[in-house]
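Expect chain and fold; thus:
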Amino acid sequence: MGGPDHEREGQGASKTLLRFLTCGSVDDGKSTLIGRLLYDSQLVLEDQLAALVADSRKLGTVGNDIDFAFLVDGLQAEREQGITIDVAYRYFATGKRKFIVADTPGHEQYTRNMATGASGADLAVILVDARKGLLTQTRRHSFIVHLLGIRHVVLAVNKMDLVAFSEARFDEIAAAYREFAARLGIPDVTCVPVVARTGDNVCRPGETMGWYKGPSLLAILEETEAGQDPSGRPFRMPVQLVSRPNADFRGFSGNVVSGRVAPGDKLTVLPSGRVAEVARIVTADGDLAVAKAGDAVTIVLAEEVDVSRGDVLTAAAERPQVADQMAAHLIWMGDEPMLPGRPYHVKCGTQAATATVSALKHKINVDTLEKTAARQLGLNDIGLCNLSFSRPLVFEPYDTLRELGSFILIDKLSNATVGAGLIRFGLRRAEHVHWQALTIDKAARAAAKHQKPCCLWFTGLSGSGKSTLADLLDKRLHADGRHTYILDGDNVRHGLNRDLGFADADRVENIRRVAEVAKLMVDAGLIVIVSFISPFRAERRMARDLFQEGEFVEVFVDTPLEVCEQRDPKGLYRKAREGLIKNFTGIDSEYERPEAPELHLLTEQASPEALVDDILADLARRSSA
């Protein structure tokens, strides 16, 4: 099948491009399979072959034979461990077609890399070790393939030589996988028995499996229909850059992700909704008469309209949706769990905002496809969530347009990507909830009370003295004629938050609710004193972000753990040490110390009265600023 004769077969013809990935459980032979494809297609150069032979003798796992995995496993760590860690991309071509293949890791801890490799593929080759059959990771990868909209799947049952080329074993695995794929809704499944190491049924029929009458893997790859041309869809272009090289030129640069556009077309700028006409389509090689999906262009509009990075230029007559609440499948990639209510950065194309998971509808068991109730998502978990964004985002369902239907979540503190989302639909309830304009605003209420409203957020361990200091401060402010209110952690749990426990997810929701109440009180012109352990930096930052600049004052009541335990006014530390209380901050649940609080109170070095004097002095400075 490979070689010069095979290459000449399609010379002169227009070759289509197929993007595919290989995936499956660890050590199923994915890298070996791709290496064999390249070798049998005579696409390995002489110097590459020499290096391959040398590496195979030094580090290989197949005796004196060539270890074809080394053609793909580029990282030294991968070669030494015999596994693929990162996503390895390779380009090759035959006489009939061009290919880009993503070799993705099989180990569970690298599922995030597999999802990355699958995001742009038209077809997935899922490998199974004939000895082991279908594994959890096989099903997880298949589920992700289904979520990402890949319609064509090839199940390559590898290492058939290790089961004596058994037709019965192949049929058993193929039947089990077809049943699972049918439940997922994958429309096109082809099963092929292969021996990647020797090349049986990879590029040529395997003489050892005469009972198999189907096509080789390469023949399937050459004949499978590639993805649909996005040029036939409505025009969409996320704006990456506002180009202003001089005072006479203002254009909007980006990649056209779907559709076509030409000078004279009417476009809508979203989310603002402004309409303008295309004056020019500019490229480095000159103006274009038409731009289509895949082109990188700069569009100049005939009218002066406000356009910024993150806006989306769309066909005026066929607009995508805009919403600040959506339902999406979420693939969790973070080592720390996803907690509803915790704020994350979100990036959707060139758009950026803050996102919170407002509800986790269910988690999906990848083995049984059962939808189960859950409070959080852990590493590699997949669930359906409702999300709320800090501003409206332009989107399309993922099944309609990947570029506007996918997003990533980024941890605000570590800046690590922790989740990948696939948008299913906008939540219609968002269309019916609007801000009501109020005549009396925060400034008017504050002026009537003759004070500058703010939120004093006391954080520290249980027993640190937060409530004592908050109460003493409240007395001093009240005596001075100030309008105040205390939100105390224990008191709030008797009413507003009585339904919450002390697991991490409950703690996040506890702080979210209190922060929203505190914001309303500041809007009412009050000085709000919040006394909560609030152990996580992410939630304290979330609370801070609700307020205007200067309204949020973080007060770290810093008392050593041993001192808090000595005080132990409620006997909680003793019970936690005895195992009677779980998830107790400072014992079996971490307290994340503030890194830059506005006020840092060292309770062992001053009396409560002196510390309150310091707080009042700071408030006086802020009021006069």
Observations:
- The chain is about 25% helix and 30% strand.
- Residues 4-223 form a domain with the Rossmann fold fold (CATH 3.40.50.300).
- The longest helix spans residues 504-523.
- The chain has a mean pLDDT of 85.
